[in-house]
Specification:
The protein has 336 residues and is an alpha/beta fold. It folds into two domains: 28-87, Vcp-like ATPase, Chain A, domain 2, CATH 3.10.330; 91-277, 3-Layer(aba) Sandwich (Rossmann fold). It is built from nine helices and 15 strands. The chain has helices at 9-22, 62-65, 89-94, 105-114, 132-141, 154-166, 203-209, 223-235, 289-328; strands spanning 32-36, 42-46, 52-55, 58-61, 73-75, 81-85, 122-126, 146-150, 173-176, 189-194, 210-220, 238-244, 251-252, 259-260, 270-276. Strands 9-8-7-10-11-15-12 form a seven-stranded mixed β-sheet, with helices on both faces. A four-stranded antiparallel β-sheet has the order 2-1-6-5, with no helix packed on it. A hairpin with a 2-residue loop joins strand 3 (52-55) and strand 4 (58-61). The chain is elongated.
């Protein structure tokens, strides 16, 4: 008798049953999971007894998925395979419902690094938007920390609350429907992040909310906004100032012909980070060396120009005096 092919449906199903029986199941009722297709389309769903999830590949009964181990291949009633996975932080950020553009995972991950967040920290965010970054911040400071997020618009506020509740992060977040201009209700926060159009206008509010030496960051899309923020940071005695842009390039995971993807997400925003400092004598001493060299060069150029202007004015005065003197001593012609 011929041996069945390894990909024969009966062989495949037998292997999958053997794998399931040898791995302890996970209680997935009420939990979020990812269902990924062979084309890497990903569905984020919460499993609830008695419900059914419908796709173009067929439907999946939640009861058939609850209790299955993560990492297993599951099949629709049409026999189409999907992979049952635990959602990653990237899945949670990119698959929330949204009214606004979310912050990309590459920027969110680096923001957590720049703000130096860890379990137990308290971080302030404004504005909330759809809550994508709020999820990443709550993920970083949980379970003992807390995120305080501020949003003015009703639709964004309600959407973000729904998203945070759906991914199980709302318990670590306090939400306020309030303008940044009115200040923050917290003091002594470990970090403050601003996702607003003109962050430089609210640095006094940031300083009032941050602990001494705390972390500040803002993500803004255009260079003119960066310039305005840099000037405001210097006026408000911030130091350790940094401007960065992150580019993430994906590659096609084909061993025999590894090459970059044909398309990539280019510019998403400029990340500006800084620390508030106290130096009554000279807060400018803590600016970057290149910034101080530039300021010294501009000061020298201004002095050179001022001296040139003085000399030019002096020459002009002498010339005017000479012309006036020549006019006074000019001989008068006799009357005819």
């Amino acid at each position: 008798m011929a041996t069945p092919h390894p990909n024969h449906p009966e062989v495949r199903q037998r292997k999958e049953k053997e794998w399931v029986s040898s791995h302890p199941s996970t209680a997935l009722a009420g939990k979020l999971v990812i269902l990924a297709t062979t084309g890497n389309k990903r569905y984020l769903i919460a499993l609830h007894p008695g419900q059914t999830f419908h796709t173009h590949l067929g439907h999946f009964r939640h009861d058939d998925l609850i209790g299955q181990p993560l990492g297993i291949t599951v099949h629709s009633q049409l026999g189409q395979p999907l992979l049952l996975l635990e959602p990653s932080l990237s899945d949670l950020i990119t698959r929330v419902k949204r009214n606004t553009q979310i912050i990309y995972p590459k920027d969110a991950a680096y923001l957590v690094h720049r703000l130096s967040l860890r379990n137990g920290d308290h971080v302030i965010e404004a504005g909330t938007g759809s809550g994508g970054l709020t999820i990443a911040l709550a993920w970083a400071v949980a379970p003992a920390g807390r995120v305080y997020t501020y949003e003015v618009r009703d639709d964004n506020f309600n959407m973000a609350r729904s998203n945070l509740e759906r991914v199980g992060m709302l318990d670590n977040v306090s939400m306020f429907q309030q303008s940044v201009a009115d200040g923050f209700r917290q003091a002594g926060a470990d970090a403050v992040f601003l996702d607003v159009r003109t962050p430089g206008r609210y640095l006094e509010q940031v300083r009032a909310a941050l602990r001494p030496g705390g972390y500040f960051a803002a993500l803004i899309p255009t260079t003119n906004q960066v310039i305005e923020l840099l000037a405001a940071l210097e006026r408000n005695s911030f130091a350790d100032i940094s401007v960065e842009e992150l580019l993430l390039r994906r590659y096609k995971a084909v061993p025999d012909r590894l090459r970059p993807d044909d398309a990539m997400v280019g510019h998403t925003g400029f990340l500006v980070s800084a620390r508030p400092v106290v130096d009554p004598t000279d807060p400018g001493r803590w600016l970057a060396e290149e910034r101080k060299r530039y300021a010294a060069r501009k000061e020298f150029e201004a002095k050179v120009q001022a001296e040139a202007d003085r000399r030019e004015a002096e020459r002009a005065d002498k010339q005017a005096d000479k012309q006036a003197g020549d006019g006074q001593h000019k001989p008068r012609l006799p009357l005819p």
